[in-house]
Fold:
Amino acid sequence: MPLPSRTAKCPNCGAPIEFKLGSSAGMVCPYCRFSVARTGETLEAIGKVADLVPTAPRLTVGDQGMVDSRPFTVGGRLQLDHGSGPWDEWYVELEPGRWAWLAYAQGRSYITFPQERADAPPYEGLKPGAQLKLPGFSLDWTVTEIGQSRLVSAEGELPLPATPGERSRYVDLTGPNGLFGTIDYGASSADAPHIYVGRSVPEGGLKMTRAALGPRPEQSVAAERLRCPKCGGPITLLVPGKSERATCPSCRAILDVDHGTLSAVGRLDERRMDLTIPLGTEGTLCGEKVIAVGMVERTTTDGYSWNEYLLYAGDGYRWLVEDNRHFTYVRDISPSDVNVGMFGTSYKGKTFRRFQYSTAKVSYVIGELYWKAAVGDRSQLEDYIRPPELLSKEETAKELHWSLGTYVPARDVWKGLKLPHEPLDTSEVGTCQPNPVSLAYMGAVGGVLIAILIVLGIIFEGAAGKQVASLPLKLLGPGQAASPDETVVYTERFEVASTTTLEVALDTNVSNQYVSVAAALIDDDTNEVRELYVNAESWSGVTDGESWSEGDANNSEYLGKVAPGRYVMRFDAQWGRESGAMSGEPPTATVNVSVGERSIGTWFLALLAIAAPLIFAIIRKITFESRRWSNSNLSQD
Amino acid sequence: MFDLFGKVMYPVFGIAVLLGYVYCVNRGVELFEADNERHTITGIAGGVGGGGTHYRAPSVFRFGGLGGK
Structure:
């Protein structure tokens, strides 16, 4: 139930303070910076809170805006430290008694609402990647981070009194479709957990409608003021206010960026990495304007390394992974949108194949990073591919991240970032490089062509030719013929209406015999003769205990481009057995002459011509995939 | 090069093959025709089936027969 607006005196300094929001139960006195608890009609001073750390916040107390078309008023701010720098959480009231936390991290805004029921699973049993249920929600939540926070400072009104220096254990969760949650377990198991559930606010979902009166907090660190604490060289921060790590270009000192001040925390090793993408390079990649702000080299335990460029895109960070001269544009996704199953890992309806896994450490860092990266940081990596996309899982003892990458051709990187020279070629296949062979396209085109060819074949080859002659052959052995012409037979005269093909089909009953026919097509008008031979033979027997057979008792030969005219065919047949001997009864043989008949070979040749590029494409696609998967360490298990 | 072939030339090539096949059918072209020899004779004396001719086809035995296994 909302509390009424109330003006009172600070129990510590007596200055007037006003609770404007009905859901506020605490406040930091703007005069003495004492945390004040509001309990009914009484106010209690809890303790002095430290000054706020300048963090270039987007909001300040008193701002008004719209989140998902709902108006809100900023009541106050908590500043927490999770061990990697301060973290602002804004207390906003959407309507009397209805409040939420609004936070901004890595380019995203998150809004979470307190839940009435707080029966949460035990903190001790949770680890990144674990799935759990929250009261009132049927869906599964995925643990993405486990850690501890410390209250650094606060300002304005708060839904709960701020206790300076208070520590708390927390678990961050993600759910499907951008749902986000946090369980605040308090300092010890004796504390009751508080559950906050909300979601990431999409780009454009958070708008300011009215700015608070008075001076605003420091918006950004004055970059020109920064100098390296080791060598005094100038340090220009590309993303002031968001970078946690920077490096000095002069002395290679690794610098901790702490709210406008720099401190050296290490030194880059001696090697100077020749960066493909110089830091500070601006351009457009995948439709987003980006600036390269940092680079991390990662190396697996077996010595394989690649570079990950950190890009700032205005509304958050992206990565451009350079691996063997191949590039992948990567952005974070919600782990809850990833479903790891027995038959593959899916994200938004797309199934990815597990490709590789490794343990990798940070082996080199340069530039600015949004977390306190250190050489030697280790994490477990797993990649799943669905070219041109890559799904990556990165896991440490405390955190779980999933990211989605999209393959970007090197020439697009060069063009988008206006890099000098030309990208270097590589013979290696990229992890998620799209296969250049599109079987879908080739298959569709080839399928249509083959279907047309089949239809044409049915029309042309299925159409019966016209038989113009059918006559038995005279088969006599040498010496049996009274004259050389005794074995000769002629067809009746026949006409060919248009240029066509002609088939001479020889049907015999040879068995361990052959029949050879010398045929002649005689043009009755021009006396032009075309001589050809048709043979049929059939052999069988037993050799070394194995029976065999070969040959065919029937055979056909074809003539092409038979011009229109009147024709006669002459046949002279002989037969024999092995070694030319003729004994026993001669076989019978019949010859059939048809016009308009052609061999099926022409059709098959056309089929082969159409299918050959398709077969070649299939071989090429398989070869490409073989080269890709030869880089996977799954096959080495 | 092959990608260009695949996307642009393959349909063109395939259509050319189909047209070539139709051409062969319609123009009586037989790609697998028997070996044949052309020449011109003076005529078949007495007509076909008249029991005699000036034209003599070569004997199959000039090839020495086929023989078996």
Notes: Confidence is low (pLDDT under 50) at residues 219-224 of chain A.
